[in-house]
Hints:
Layout: E1 9-13, H1 18-29, E2 33-38, H2 43-48, E3 54-57, H3 63-76, E4 82-85, H4 101-122, E5 135-139, H5 152-171, E6 176-181, H6 191-196, H7 202-213, H8 219-231, H9 234-237, E7 240-243, H10 252-260
Parallel strand pairs: 1-2, 1-4, 2-3, 4-5, 5-6, 6-7
Amino acid sequence: MTLSEGPKKAIVVGASADIGMALCEDWLVKGWEVSGTYRTYSEAVRCLEPKLSSLVQCNLSNTDSVEDACLTLQRCASSWDVLVLSPGLQDPIGMFTQCDFEEWAQSIVINFTNQLRFTHHLLPDRNLNANASPTVIFFAGGGVNNAPIGYSAYTVSKIALMKMVELLAAEIPDVKFVIIGPGWVKTKIHNSILDAGIKAGDNYARTLEKFQKDEFTAMADVVTCCNALINGSKELLTGRNYSVVFDKWGSSELHELLAKHPDMYKLRRFGNDY
């Protein structure tokens, strides 16, 4: 049997987010068929809409909205090659005991649970008739190697996503699951820190400095990293967490290291040798 090699099909959950929109635009230029979701209709979404195969309104904080969006995408965007989950919310910012718990729990739903709800619904529609394996991309945040103060809901959600990527890779070997840490990209996610002010802790001053010096990870690097992981070997890349800024993604040097170290770029307990 000859496997089909037509235009790739992608679904971008959060196409109205900055990274999601950049991926849509890159893949549309390449001739892909792209579908996506948005939360709030904007001028940028209005310009993007006619170029997409389908665009669905979805509020990730509302499970019914997610269920409806999944049903629409299953009808309009089946047989996908790439699924991207790009939304991220840092609120509520502040000490755990000082946060409204319902707002804290809602952040887990947006950053973790409902992103997996999308994945659970859409995985059966993946394209297994192409030469390349289908790819699912999540996005990571900070907190893997330290304990950021004031961002517990966001941090624990992103770390849970990292472990879920490894679990999904083990359970579903015909799909490449990756999670990418984009670094400091100039996106709307930083508005919550600027709005929080001193309640955001040291991150407030760091964020102000980033904007003053315009020191951000280039969006083009995020897009290039995503494409490198989509085009790379499933056997080597799946189940791992990649950094846009610090990792040599797409290089033969990295691929050799990954082949030698199956635990590389995965969550592991430190100190087992002591």
